[in-house]
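User: Let's play a game. I give you a shape written as tokens, and you guess the letters that built it. Ready? Here's round one.
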């Protein structure tokens, strides 16, 4: 579901297996990347790259086998050499799609989208929504070990993707997330629907004090529109930031034909702007590309695929990053159809 560049390797990712290396020029397969056979368990589709150190921080759920509650916590240096590999015991087996990393903390959420071999063997859903188990978030020091982890409990919810995550001057940890009240796509343990309407994610800011009062948690809703696939200027990963983008839409409005668009957030001003596409168009994840290597935050373009479902074709749309409301400044008509998918990334050449 994702593709990243690290240690001079192009890695295709999906969270149940090891990364798969591709030739960056031809995209021909090169084989699984196990980091010299030091990889522990599966590998997330959402590793975090530290711009300051070049490190790649990553995890893998079900680290001790299918549907187990252990989560691997690992770090590879800028050359792709694993320098840390530990296993965290979670409160219960869970599908953990993404996480957050700051300068000093690895923030590992466990949401009540549970997994169960017993259910699966009995013909029931292997993954199911169990809100009574609550949400639990581990704070693991980057310079410590899992023995130093602190847990914070929060009300049940689900997050597929955070936007960015950073620390304030007084040591608090801020994580901006697209939060669902109920996990989408998955039923209750007995197979019944988890809700009578399609769940939608909305942008929230979570603030924690991992070194202060136990269980400290504050939540602020930043927008009421539905959306997914949050992105930002990756040069500001793990730093306080201003600009972010999502795919937005009316996916939960009953009786209204679905529409999608791109929304830009100026978090410093507390404003946002949106460009909506045609009713039959589906947007891919918005990927920010800086105008130059040293351009100011947000100075550049946002790229995303637009699947024209009525015509069974795909465009690559290019927006001015901080003025998406005026629509694409350029469209590239792709020679192959690319249906609505998940994630993508930009790497400045040469390969």
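Assistant: Ready! My guess for every position:
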């Amino acid at each position: 579901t994702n593709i990243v560049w690290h240690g001079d390797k192009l890695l295709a990712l999906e969270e149940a297996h090891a990364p798969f290396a591709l030739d960056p020029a031809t995209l021909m397969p090169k084989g699984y990347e196990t980091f010299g056979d030091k990889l522990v368990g599966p590998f997330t589709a959402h590793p975090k790259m530290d711009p300051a150190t070049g490190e790649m921080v990553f995890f893998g759920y079900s680290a001790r086998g299918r549907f187990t509650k252990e989560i691997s916590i690992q770090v590879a240096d800028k050359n792709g050499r694993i320098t840390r590999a530990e296993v965290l015991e979670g409160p219960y087996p869970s599908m953990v799609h993404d996480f957050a990393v700051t300068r000093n903390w690895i923030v590992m959420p466990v949401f009540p989208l549970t997994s169960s071999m017993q259910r699966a063997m009995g013909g029931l859903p292997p993954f199911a929504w169990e809100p009574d188990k609550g949400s639990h978030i581990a704070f693991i020091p980057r310079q410590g070990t899992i023995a130093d982890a602190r847990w914070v409990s929060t009300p049940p919810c689900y997050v597929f993707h955070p936007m960015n995550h950073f620390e304030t001057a007084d040591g608090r940890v801020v994580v901006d997330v697209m939060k669902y009240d109920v996990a989408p796509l998955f039923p209750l343990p007995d197979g019944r629907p988890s809700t009578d309407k399609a769940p939608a994610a909305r942008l929230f800011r979570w603030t924690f004090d991992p070194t202060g009062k136990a269980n400290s948690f504050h939540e602020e809703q930043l927008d009421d529109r539905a959306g997914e696939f949050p992105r930002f200027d990756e040069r500001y990963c793990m730093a306080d930031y201003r600009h972010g983008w999502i795919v937005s839409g009316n996916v939960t409005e009953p009786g209204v034909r679905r529409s999608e668009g791109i929304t830009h957030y100026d978090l410093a001003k507390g404003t946002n702007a949106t460009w909506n596409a045609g009713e039959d168009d589906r947007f891919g994840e918005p990927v920010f590309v800086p105008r130059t290597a040293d351009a100011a935050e947000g100075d550049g373009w946002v790229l995303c695929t637009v699947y024209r479902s009525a015509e069974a074709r795909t465009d690559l749309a290019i927006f001015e990053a901080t003025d998406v409301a005026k629509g694409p400044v350029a469209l590239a008509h792709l020679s192959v159809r690319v249906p609505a998918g998940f994630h993508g990334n930009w790497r400045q050449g040469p390969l």
